[in-house]
Amino acid sequence: MVDATSGNLSASGDLPPSGLWRLSGRVAWQLLPWVLPVLLILLWHGAAISGHLNRSVLPGPLDVVDVTISLVNRGQLQHHILVSLQRVALGFALGAVTGLALGIIVGLSIAARQIADLTVQMVRTVPHLALVPLMIFWFGIGEEPRILLVALGVVFSVYINTVSGIRSVDPKLVEMGRSYGLSKAELIWSIILPGALQQILTGIRYALGVAWLTLVVAETIASREGLGFLAQDARELLRLDVIVLVILIYAVAGWLADFLTRLVEARLLSWHPSYSQQGSRT
Amino acid sequence: MSGAIVNVRHLARSFGGKRVLDGIDLDVGAGEFVSLIGASGVGKSTLLKIVAGLDQPTSGTLRIHKPGKPAEVRMMFQEDRLLPWRTVLGNVILGTKGHEADGVDILCAIGLGGRENEYPSVLSGGQRQRTALARALLHQPDLLLLDEPFGALDALTRAAMQELLSSLLRESPRTVLLVTHDVEEALLLSDRVIVMRSGKIARSLSLPGPRPRARGDAELARLKEELISSLLHDEGAPAPSNAARLERALQPHD
């Protein structure tokens, strides 16, 4: 009896004593995804200062930090980032709104689908980057071709996911809505769009990735501003540190875009059991 | 008695040449509780959908009316059909402008007070179905249509839901049309049981006395046995050719 009790006591003594332990556990969990990137950078730094890394092939992290500081001091980096962000935002907004509108119309109306879907599916299979020469021929090297290219890269994944999201809405819920006297507009707003939302957001997340990819290509060709120009210019001047900096900025921007859409998802889909749990854990 | 009056005349409905409903005549009085029973595919649910306005008859007429004002019809389905992205209260007041207070009242009446702001995904099957019942009963519909509303629930929850429905109807009577596979449920809850057979009304059985009836009643048990054996006859045993085919399919291959 006594042994069993003391055994129990020592067992409970092994457990975390207070909320502090649990809090530090949660912080560690939050930091876990950052361990690998930090480790990689440290490895990179170690290779650079130990001389294992040929600086004319790949500059070290400190070189990149140096060039970042000097570019920021000259006000160039902010300017190029801002220009690129503007292009991505404009192109993405244009493509997403078009894709969403087209997707909603085609998703809701069988007639619209019959008219438009075949054409959209055909145009979709053309790689949008193949249009770069044509765009430059039409619009010269102004802003339009870049923004249009980004929009073209975005529009189809938003369109396809919107259409299939609307199609996959449970017809029983729509029937229920009709039997409760909802108008067509109320049906769309209260049942069809919320039901399709999860897939629309998946399309938007994918489209953000395509938008950045398109921008890199579009800015590398015939541009005097933006991150792509910065990298292209650096290549001509053999500034490897700048090229690596631009690549890192693209990586961070891509991660940031994904992070933001996840936040939006967690908020808009808070009713969804898997999303509400995910939101609290990650 | 309050509630709508339903008049159905020579109603027929065909799907691709097949007559699912074939000359239905049915009158339901104000405040009457009528159950439709029958084997699968005899057209019970089709008839209910037409009354709900979710389907159009091929021929015949349907009239739902109430002295003084247009009759309000509400339907409850076998699945709860709650919108997962709306809270319990948001589901109950669907299609009405505002009326949160009424929604809270009816949720309290069905025993879900305090759960207004939860999402359906955290509710049990019985709670979800009660939420669906609350949605159907909001604003006192004149005609309540129930399409196997408790069919997917376990026996105990089903009995509790039947009790709940009866007590709510006792407090505020209205016309009810119930489609069910459960003969006992039909006998317990309704004033009249209608047996359907291949798109027609085969039998109309008026039940005496006030509802709901006692579960153990001997006369009820006798009626139940009689109705079930006649329904079994309709459903039919598997045809010999099918049985042989089944046997072949179950045999191990060489």
From TrEMBL, chain B:
Keywords: ATP-binding, Cell membrane, Membrane, Nucleotide-binding, Translocase, Transport
Record keyword Cell membrane present: yes
Ranges where the ABC transporter domain occurs: 6-223
Annotated InterPro entries: AAA+_ATPase, ABC_transporter-like_ATP-bd, ABC_transporter_ATP-bind, P-loop_NTPase
Alphabetical list of Gene3D superfamilies matching this protein: P-loop containing nucleotide triphosphate hydrolases (3.40.50.300)
A Pfam family reported for this protein in Swiss-Prot or TrEMBL: ABC_tran
A single MF term (Gene Ontology): ATP binding
Entry keyword Nucleotide-binding: yes
Protein name stated in the entry: ABC transporter ATP-binding protein
Source organism of this protein record: Mesorhizobium retamae
